[in-house]
Design goal:
6-stranded antiparallel sheet; EC 5.1.3.3
Length: 346
């Protein structure tokens, strides 16, 4: 196993390094100091050919100018916050309106767009990188100085472990995730409509016209949202269910997990690749790039198209700060924010 560090680019006179993590079983993962971005995941197919299974760019410029959060850590709060404001202990905090009237993925310069400090990790049976960042009190409108640690650890058991830790000096809100876009075909040979997804979720959250949770849970039974026994992504792209149509004919929804002992499984039969996701988070936002065909940039020489990737964003429930019925995302001084997600490749 090894960790290789190389210069990836420069931003404002600051060098940005990439770390390539390699295990002893033909898997490698490349991560960046900019945004804690997962830049590449090289995984063999059924005949042993290793190809990249995540969307991204080969240059820093692509991430700075164009990337829709490709592979990045999202924070302080993943998803949308209604009205770009929230209240804590009677005080209202105003955030940036960076998606119409709402606040999205941490604001104008969220965790996806900052430079993180990095320390390589080499231990018995695993290699990785520990990233740290201190978000100052008031950054993007959020209260509290927040010290954040994100660790990526690649093991010889074909696992990529993602762990998140944070402490604050003032009461604040926090809900982090990684925004990797997966495509198991390898090197973007096909879109993901033929991928099969299995997920232990009995309920999906209803969204309003601004893609915010209404607070209502929808039973997935008999709909394109029922992944409990596995189904192809394509079902949601052709469904006439109002919630599929609302988000551009596909998925952009929080699924509430009902059994944390059962993994989420994404399969591509043609390549033979399988991705299992285990998490301690209450929900997974499934996003299927429903309107990516409108984008103008190129992804490693390919023009974007609808359904080119699928995001499986393990996190707290979006807009939880406005829904007391959802698990709280409030973090207090003296507490530690902890979240863990594991990606298992086969």
């Amino acid at each position: 196993m090894e960790v290789k560090k190389e210069l990836f680019g420069e931003l404002g006179g600051h060098p940005i390094y990439a770390y390539e993590l390699k295990n002893d079983r033909s898997i490698s993962v490349t991560v960046l100091e900019y945004g804690c971005i997962i830049n590449k995941i090289m995984v063999p197919d059924r005949i042993g050919k290793a190809e990249n299974i995540v969307l991204g760019f080969d240059s820093l410029d692509g991430y700075v100018k164009d990337a829709p959060y490709f592979g990045a850590i999202i924070g302080r709060v993943a998803g949308r916050i209604a009205g770009s404001s929230f209240e804590l202990d009677g005080k209202t905090y105003k955030l940036a309106n960076n998606e119409n009237r709402n606040h999205l993925h941490g604001g104008l310069k969220g965790f996806n767009a900052v430079i993180w400090n990095s320390t390589p990790i080499e231990e018995d049976g695993a290699v990785g990188v520990e990233f740290t960042y201190t978000s100052p009190d008031g950054e993007e409108g959020y209260p509290g100085k927040l010290d954040v640690t994100v660790m990526y650890l690649l093991t010889n058991e074909q696992e990529l472990k993602l762990s998140y830790r944070a402490v604050t000096d003032k009461k604040t809100i926090l809900n982090m995730t990684n925004h990797a876009y997966f495509n198991l075909s390898g090197d973007l040979k096909r879109d993901v409509r033929g991928h099969e997804l299995s997920m232990p979720s009995d309920y999906v959250l209803e969204l309003d016209q601004e893609t915010l949770p209404t607070g209502k849970k929808l039973d997935v039974t008999g709909t394109a949202f029922d992944f409990r026994n596995g189904r192809k992504i394509e079902g949601g792209t052709v469904s006439n269910h109002p919630q599929n149509v609302l988000v551009g004919n596909g998925f952009d929804h929080p699924f509430l997990l009902s059994n944390h002992k059962k993994p989420i499984v994404l399969k591509d039969d043609e390549s033979g690749r399988v991705l299992k996701v285990e998490t301690d988070q209450p929900c997974v936002v499934v996003y299927t790039c429903n309107t990516m065909g409108n984008d103008e940039y190129e992804i490693r020489g390919r023009k974007p198209c609808d359904y080119l990737g699928i995001c499986l964003e393990a996190q707290g429930v979006p807009d939880a700060v406005h829904h007391p019925e959802f698990p709280s995302i409030v973090l207090k001084p003296g507490e530690e924010y902890r979240a863990n997600t594991k990606l298992i490749f086969s």
